[in-house]
Amino acid sequence: MKTTNFIYKYGVIIAIIGLLVIFSGLLPGQFLTFDNLMNIMTSITITTLVAGGVTFSLVVGGFDLSVGSVASLASMLAAGMMVFSVQPAWVAILVPLIAGILIGLSNSFLSIKLRIPDLLATLGMMYVARGIQLVYCRGNQIFSKMNIITPHGIHQAPGTITKNFLFIGQGKISGIPFMIILMLVIIIIGHIILNNTKLGRLMYATGGNPEAARLSGIDVAGIKTIGYIFSGVLAAIGGIVLASYLGSGQPNAGDAYLMDAVAASFIGFTFLGTGIPNLPGTLIGAIFTGVLMNGLTMMNVPYTAQDIFKGLVLVGALALRAFKNK
Amino acid sequence: MDTLRIKDITLDFPGVRALDNVSMSFKTGEVHALVGANGAGKSSLFKTISGIYPHYRGKIYLGDKEIKAKSPHEMLKEGIYCIYQEVDTSLVPELTIAENLLLYEIVNTKKFNTFSWQTIYDRAKNILKDVGFEKELPNVKEKVANISVAQRQIIAIARALASNASFILFDEPTSSLSSKDVEKLKAIIRGLKEKDLGIVFVSHRLEEVFDISDRISVLRDGKYIGTKEKDKTSPEEIVSMMLGHSLEEQFPIAPHTSEDETVLKVEGLWYKNKVRDVSFELKRGEILGIYGLVGAGKTELLHLLYGNIKPDKGKIILKGKNVRFHIPKDAVKRGIFLIPEERRKQGLFLEKTIAFNIGIANLDRISKGIFVDKEREIELARTMKEELKIVASSVLQFVDFLSGGNQQKVVVGRWIQKKGDIYFFDEPTKGIDVGAKSEMYRIISELAKMGKSILFITPEIPEVMGLCDRVLVMFDGSIVAQMRKDEMDPKRLLAYATGGSKE
Ligand SMILES: Nc1ncnc2c1ncn2[C@@H]1O[C@H](COP(=O)(O)OP(=O)(O)OP(=O)(O)O)[C@@H](O)[C@H]1O
Ligand SMILES: [Mg+2]
C-alpha cells in the first residue's frame, strides 16, 4: 500500500529522472547539455500553454477539445493582423486573445445553456475555429511580404511580422528563450489562481461536485464559463507564441498540440498524488513527454514511430490513476 | 448454527487506527446490533469482514474455519453479504432497477444468451415480490439515477435477500427509510432470523436496536467495549458504553419563544405534482418542523424556497418583499442556507479536505482580497471541528474518508459561522450518533435563540415533538395539518402524514 502510493505520487518525476539517466547514458555528451535541455523546454512550451487551457477546463468539470484549433486560429490571426492589416504587435496579440475568449464563451454557452455534453460541444467548436482560421487565411500560410492573389491580380501583402512580435518566440533573456520564461510565469500565475484565490476554490468546487457547489451558493454556470474562458485564452497564448516562433502563420499548425496537451494534463493528475487536474502536474507531464520524444529523436527513432510512445505514456498514466482509485 | 468470529482485528489507515484489537462473534439465527458513536469504527469493521480492507491484522473464523477477507467477491462466496452505508457505491446509476437487482448474476454468468430483457424484468419483479418491496419499486425499468435514496437502499436490501448469504451485515439500513419502510425492514429481518440467517446491523436509533436485536455490541474509538443481551440492559447503559459517559438531556431543556415578526411567507406554491398549493409563514426565531413520509414533497418544498428549482406558481415573500431566486446563490446572498438531505451527493466535495469543504461557503471570511488565507481557512475549520466534535485526525483530512456522521457535521459546519437569517435543515440527524444528535439539537435551538428562523424537515416524531415550536404535516405535496407545540401528538401526526384524516 505504501509503495504503490509512493509510485503514484512521484511516478512521473521518477520516470523523468529515469529517462534522463537512460538517455544520458546512451547518448553521452549529447543529451545532458544546456542547449539540449533548452531545446526540450522550447519544444514543450507551446504544449504546456495549450495543456494549461485543457487543465483549466478540466478543473471546472469540462473538457476543452477546441484548444488545438484555437491555437491555430490565434496564430493565423496574429500573423494576419500584421501582414494583412499592418497592425502593431500589441494588436496582433490582443485580437487572438479576444478570439480565445469568444471561443471559450461559445463552449460554455453550448455546454451550459444548451446542455450539450462538454466533449461534443467543444468538438463542434474545434471544427468551427478551424474553419474560421482556414477561411481567414484562405488555406495559405501567412508570412511577411507574401503575395496575395486576388481577382485583380497579384500584389504584395502590405505588412510584415514585426521584430517586437518575433521576440516572443525567438528572443532570449540572458541566454534563456523568452518563451520559456513566459510559459513558466503563466503557469505560476495560473497555479496561484487555482490554489490561492477564491476563484480557484470556486473552480475546484464546481468541477468536484457541481450539485454540491450549486447548493453551497456557487454560481456554477458562471464559474464554468470563466474556466472555459481561461482555457480559450491559454490556448490563444499558445497560438501567439507559435506564430512568433515560426515567424509566420501556418494553417492548422496548432491542431497537433491538442492530443499532447490532453496527455500532459492527465499525466499531471497523478502529480504529488492529488488525483485532480493541476498546473504544475501538467507542466511535469509535458516535460516527461518532451524528454521522451527528444531522447527518441536523438537516438534516431523515426518521427513516425513516436506517437506509439506517446500513446503508451498516456495509457500508462491513466492506468496509474485508475489503479489508485480502486 | 454457525458462528462468525473475529479475533484481534486491527485496522490502520494513515494517521488513524480505525479498529484496535477488536474481537467479537456473531451467530446465525440471531439479530446482532452494532452500535457506537460516529467514527467508532462500525463501518470499518463491516468493510473488513466483507473483504474491502484486506490489509487488516487479526483473524476471522466462519465456524472453525479461518477465512481470509481478501475481497468482497470471495467473502460473498463464503456467504457473507454486506450492505454499505454509502449505498450508492454498490449501485450503477445508469442501469435500471432490474439490472441492478440482478447485477451479480448478470456479471457472473457465462451464458449471455439466456438473458433476455423480459427474463431480467420478470426475475427482478419476482425478487421484489419475494421480499415484499414491489410497492416501493413499482417500475423495474426505471433507471436508478432517477430514484430516491430510500428506494436505492431497498434495492441493496433486496439484492442481499436474494443472494444465498448466511450472514448479512447492514450498515445503517434504516437511516434513509421512512418509518413505514423501517417497519417493513424489521419484519423482513425477523423473517431472516427465522430462516436461521445471521443478521448484524448498525443503527443510531436505539429504539430500533432494542426492538429487533437479540444482542448489542458496542464499539468506541475503534475498541470493543462489550456485548449485552438485549433483555439484560437498557438504552441508558448502552449510551454510556458508547460515549464513555451518560447522556442527560436529549433535547435542549428551555424551549424558547418565537417572535411575531414574519420572516418568510409562502403563498400558493405549486411545483409539478410534488408540491401543491403550499402556504405558510415562518416567524423570526421559530423552529418550524416539516413532518411527512418519504415522497410527501418536503425536500422539493425546501428546494423551491432555496431557488434550486423553480415554482410553477406561487409567491415567496422574504421580510415583506416578493423574491424570486434564480439559483441558490441568490438565496444564500439573502441569508438563507440549506443543509441538504443527501450529504455525499449534494453536500460534500469528497476529494477535498474538511477545511476546503467548510471554507468554500465562507470565502469572504477567510480571504484577504482575492487571496484565500490558508491559515484562516484552517482556523475556521478547526473551530467547527471542535464545536461540532468532528472526529478526524486533522482538518486536512479528505472528507471521503470520514465516517458518515462526521461527513454530515462538515456540511452543517459550512453554514454555522455565516451571518444568515434562515436555515433549512433537511433531515440533519440522519446517521449521526446520539451524542452528536443532541449536539445538533443544541446547535439548532441556539440558532433559534439568536433570532434565526429554522425550517426543519424530519421523518422522526420525537424530533418534531422535542424540538419544534410548530409543525406542518405534509402528505402528497400538500400541507394537511399545522400544530403548535401544545397540540402535537404522535398519533395525530402519523395519521395526518399517512393521509388518514384531513383538517
Ligand atoms: N478509507 C479510510 N481512510 C482513512 N481513514 C478512514 C478510512 N475509513 C475510515 N477511516 C477513519 O476510521 C475511523 C472509523 O470510521 P468508520 O467509518 O468505521 O466509523 P463509523 O463507526 O461507521 O461511524 P458513523 O456512525 O459516522 O458511520 C474514522 O476516524 C474515519 O475517519
Ligand atoms: Mg459508518
Written overview of the protein:
The complex is a heterodimer of chains A (326) and B (503). With 326 residues, chain A is mainly α. Chain A has a single domain, classed as Orthogonal Bundle (ABC transporter involved in vitamin B12 uptake, BtuC). Helices cover 73% and strands 4% of the residues of chain A. Chain A contains 13 helices and 4 strands. In chain A, strands 1-2 form a two-stranded antiparallel ribbon. In chain A, strands 3-4 form a two-stranded antiparallel ribbon. In chain A, α2 packs parallel to α7, α3 packs parallel to α5 and α4 runs antiparallel to α5. The radius of gyration of chain A is 20 Å and the shape is globular. The mean pLDDT of chain A is 91. Chain B is of the alpha/beta class and 503 residues long. Chain B folds into 3 domains: 3-243, 3-Layer(aba) Sandwich (Rossmann fold); 260-335 and 419-503, P-loop containing nucleotide triphosphate hydrolases (Rossmann fold), CATH 3.40.50; 349-418, no CATH class. Chain B is built from 18 helices and 22 strands. Chain B has helices spanning 42-49, 72-77, 97-101, 103-108, 117-131, 149-162, 179-194, 206-212, 235-243, 298-305, 328-333, 343-347, 354-359, 374-387, 404-416, 434-449, 461-467, 490-497; strands at 3-13, 16-27, 31-35, 57-62, 65-67, 80-83, 167-171, 198-202, 215-220, 223-229, 262-271, 275-283, 287-291, 313-318, 321-323, 336-339, 367-368, 371-372, 422-426, 453-458, 470-475, 478-484. In chain B, the strands form 5 sheets. A 6-stranded mixed β-sheet of chain B has the order 6-7-8-3-9-10, with helices on both faces. A 6-stranded mixed β-sheet of chain B has the order 16-19-20-13-21-22, sandwiched between helices. In chain B, β1 (3-13) and β2 (16-27) form a beta hairpin. At the A-B interface, α8 and α9 of A face α11, α12 and β18 of B. Bound molecules: adenosine-5'-triphosphate and magnesium ion. Residues 13, 16, 18, 36, 38-44, 85, 391-392, 401-406, 433 of chain B line the site of adenosine-5'-triphosphate (ATP).
